[in-house]
Amino acid sequence: MNAHPTASGLPLDLEPELIAKGYSQFHQIGAGGMGTIVFARKESLDREVAIKVIAQHAAGDDEEVRRFMAEMRTVAALDHPAIVPIYDGDITPGGVPYFVMKFLRGPSLEAHINRRILENSKFTVEQTVQLLTPIAQALDYLAALPSPVIHRDVKPANIIADSDASDEGCTVMLADFGIAINEDTTRMTREGLRVGTDAYMAPELYPTQLAQAPPQPTAASDRYSLALIALEMLTLVNLRRATSPQQWAHSRVIPELTPQNLALADGPSAPSLNAFFATALHPDPHQRFATSTEMMEALAAAAETKGPVEASRTAARSAAPSTTPANAVPARAAVSPNDDAEPAHSRRRRNVLLAAVLAGILLVTSIAGGLVLRGAGWDAEEKVLAQEFPLLFPKRPGRAPWKDMNCRSAEPEAGQRARIICESDDLTFVGADFGTEDNRDAIVPDTVEELSSDACTITSAEIPDQPGTWGIYPTGVSARFAFVLAGPNAEEDRLNLPVC
To answer: Which end of the chain is more exposed for a tag (fewer CB within 10 A), N or C?
Structure first.
């Protein structure tokens, strides 16, 4: 198969074929495991399109080619305003399949969520319903077809929105049917096989030892994924990252929302939203909402039902006299530059690791209120971290001794054994265990400030390109651990951190 791409990302024998059909201005705009996406324009129709071509590594795999062709046939047969339409498709003389679809300028919902995280601006229920209702209607359309289609990969990255609902009239569409199934396509047959994205997968799709056959996705599975997206938009917290892998697969717990988890306008609706998600995220598919549209209507209704709001603890804390723990680190010392002690290539490597690890710590969790997961406890690695710093972390997920923050489990990032995230209205605190001092030091910035007290010495530095975000690095026997503080008062809060 002649799948080797040109500079535009198209196979050598496809570009001339498309030019003959009137397409031009080719340039690659995306790539994934299944294929490459190339922008083009058809001048005769004044139409911008996206051309999806099977990935080079998959072009010689008969199974992958069949799957790609199944996606093309599946989507070409669909007709819904919230599903990306296909205009054309074929196989090149060299045997490379491709199809031409509508080009959408809007970024993905994932991009909108990530931007909101950085701005600490949660979606309101009204905005969430506005954005997700077209997707809910598309899923109900798919489920009602004579041969129902199950998307199997409903996630923010596969939802395209030309605005984040802060402006009315946004266009929202569901894309990427690469692993969709209907009665004419092959279902999962191998025991233990899961297809989809782990962070948005319904619990019934995880196989168990007692199962007689591999679990099969249904429309209820797609609805569960849509409910997870709604939860992430309202809280700016990805539930999968707040849950250990074992809990996610076999003992998933329902989040309990409080007013601080939500946009200010939705705080009074926390009790009714908890009732909504208890149904939308029910472990039994038969106990969930009957349709996705019904689910969106119930979400909108939940926001109109106001419950009692807890009295704010923030005012009480600010009115109380501040106290400094005896083992905090209040004193400042001189900055300790290490530039002369380390080769430049090592410093560059550390900066790359620092950006990757600490951006991963804060990107999905920055200043969003922590979700309280009922029934969850620390796993073995998290317990080590919590026991090492008993003045920072509670004995189990929940309220922390320091600043009355909500603490929860989080999936470890690169190089970490464990990670715990604690949050309050105006502060996010992350603790990580890197296992060894060498692993931890790989993410310590080149220039740090030394802070000392009678009990111990630590180093600290503001995280590059993240104003108001500070790293704290213990020394001595605790040198395998690192902490990150983010918030308007993080620079001063780090001086009172009880790490010694």
So the answer is: N
